[in-house]
Amino acid sequence: MPGVVCTKLKILIIESDSTQEEVADYLGLAETTFNRKLNGKSEFKLSEAKKLADLFNLTIEELFFLKPVTKEETKSKAS
């Protein structure tokens, strides 16, 4: 996960008055596993990304991409 996304996620955690431990518990992860993912040393699974997006009332695209991904871009990359 790029550094910008890691920073964005850390900011969202702080702004929501949550702790990394609480978010790790929400995802069903050990805190050390969550920290590895949060620091870009490991990737989030799609199911974890969806839970994070739901937690912060964002789409996966808003959380993990710097610009919105259009349906056309998704279709062209899937081909």
UniProtKB/TrEMBL annotation:
Designated name of the protein: DNA-binding XRE family transcriptional regulator
Keyword field: DNA-binding
GO molecular function: DNA binding
Residue stretches making up the HTH cro/C1-type domain: 19-63
UniProt cross-references to InterPro entries, sorted A to Z: Cro/C1-type_HTH, Lambda_DNA-bd_dom_sf
Organism in which the protein naturally occurs: Orenia marismortui
Source organism, top-level taxon: Bacteria
CDD domains cross-referenced by the UniProt entry: HTH_XRE
